[in-house]
């Protein structure tokens, strides 16, 4: 399975890079509109890295607390530190930017980065299993809305999956919103 996922990751990086070069259109506005119904809830976003689609305008528009992921260690769930557009950021593990300080928050709605996704709502990430562990833990505690955010070209026929993969509830792209059954 790890070879299958590794090959899928390499293909997905290449497709995402092409889409990134073409631009994200109104994707962040579509995401903000979709999330407008979630005002008052704690939202997690992410600091875009590499060729990830940029969710920052939707995070800045959120009516309520926003956090961003912090890696606590290998094989550990992510935690989320409060973020706002003015927060001082420093480089964390794997070069992702994290808030230098701030409160830990527990998201009810998550904007989830990904390499590829499919029509079942499965996603492929960088391979740390961080979002799978995190969603498993949060869902054991209460209802959570996991919203993938991606370029439409990141959709594939079937993402390779294993028993620990957590499904997305919806995905938002520059072409619109898909809610999974
Ligand atoms: N913007 C953003 N922030 C995020 C994530 C993300 O996917 N996007 N994460 C979502 O989990 C976490 C970061 N996870 C990451 C996991 C691996 C690598 C990475 O560069 N991995 C190397 C291989 C490293 C190794 O195997 O030792 C690589 O892919 O080359 C980067 C980030 C938390 N923050
Ligand atoms: N809840 C979990 N408990 C134990 N192991 C897990 C859990 N979730 C994922 N893993 C393990 O983590 C490893 C990486 O998982 P996977 O390849 O699905 O990562 P990914 O979804 O691509 O990455 P990420 O979620 O960080 O973006 C796998 O060995 C997987 O079995």
TrEMBL record:
It holds the Pfam family 5-FTHF_cyc-lig. It comes from the Bacteria. Keywords: ATP-binding, Ligase, Magnesium, Metal-binding, Nucleotide-binding. Its EC number is 6.3.3.2. ATP binds at residues 123-131. Substrate binds at residues 47, 52. GO terms for molecular function: 5-formyltetrahydrofolate cyclo-ligase activity; ATP binding; metal ion binding. GO terms for biological process: folic acid-containing compound biosynthetic process; tetrahydrofolate interconversion. It catalyses: (6S)-5-formyl-5,6,7,8-tetrahydrofolate + ATP = (6R)-5,10-methenyltetrahydrofolate + ADP + phosphate. The keyword Nucleotide-binding applies. Its cofactor is Mg(2+). Belongs to the 5-formyltetrahydrofolate cyclo-ligase family. This is 5-formyltetrahydrofolate cyclo-ligase.
């Amino acid at each position: 399975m790890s070879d299958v996922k590794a090959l899928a990751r390499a293909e997905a990086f290449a497709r995402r890079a092409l889409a990134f070069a073409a631009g994200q259109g109104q994707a962040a506005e579509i995401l903000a509109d979709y999330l407008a119904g979630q005002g008052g809830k704690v939202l997690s976003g992410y600091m875009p890295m590499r060729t990830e689609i940029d969710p920052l305008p939707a995070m800045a528009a959120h009516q309520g607390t926003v956090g961003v992921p912090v890696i606590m260690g290998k094989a550990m769930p992510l935690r989320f530190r409060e973020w706002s557009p003015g927060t001082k950021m420093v480089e964390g593990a794997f070069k992702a930017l994290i808030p230098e300080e701030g409160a830990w928050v527990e998201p009810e709605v998550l904007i989830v980065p990904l390499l590829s996704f499919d029509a079942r709502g499965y996603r492929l990430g960088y391979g740390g299993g961080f979002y799978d562990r995190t969603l498993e833990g949060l869902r054991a505690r209460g209802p959570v809305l996991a919203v993938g955010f991606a370029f439409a070209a990141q959709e594939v026929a079937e993402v390779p999956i294993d028993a620990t993969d957590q499904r997305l509830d919806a995905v938002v792209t520059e072409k619109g919103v898909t809610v999974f059954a």
